[in-house]
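Quick one: structure for this chain?
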Amino acid sequence: MSITLLYVEDDRDIGNAVSADLRERKYAVRWLESGEGAVEAAAGCQLAVLDVMLPGLDGFTVGQRLKRAYPNLPVLMLSARTSIDDKLQGLEFADDYLTKPFHPDELAARIEVLLRRTGAAEPAALALKHLIVYEGNNVIQEAATGREILLTGKQFQIFTFLLRHLGQILTKEQIYEAVWGEAYIEGDKTLMVHIRYLREKLELNPAAPEIIETVRGIGYRVRA
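Got it. Here's what it folds into:
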């Protein structure tokens, strides 16, 4: 299974060079030129490489959002800023901080270290009915075919939150507040709609779900 990296860099010359080098090293690279859409793009990625100086949302903000959405996703910050205050700000949430200019071999070495540290290089697999879930990698495959099942960012957040509480019944309030970071309003159908779409992708028969179970009047759970 290939390792997929999210790479956010607005400088096209640097972005082209770094993306090409990483692809030569057999990584799949999703390159964005701004932080907009980074949370969605990170679904299915095993590591994020973020430039600090970006148009619109800066790399610190993007990195913090990624960590909230995917707590196990390693984040490597890149920046021309060399002050200790900038490094400390980045390392409050990021897993590593590399200053520009850097040699491609150093970036690759740092990526490899983070992947080994988080277990992404040799992912642990969870067998779940007809699925294989690679924990910490945000990758889900059909066991029989090996086909990867692609989820949106919100779908991944919901599913991984349920997996972190495997076998436990979680209330709609708990799930909504963990994923959206806002108080749940009674009667809001947002979570229910996302669960329906999630089942359409994960279940063999969405009308009779075996993975994401509804506990009437309470919420949902994933059984081992």
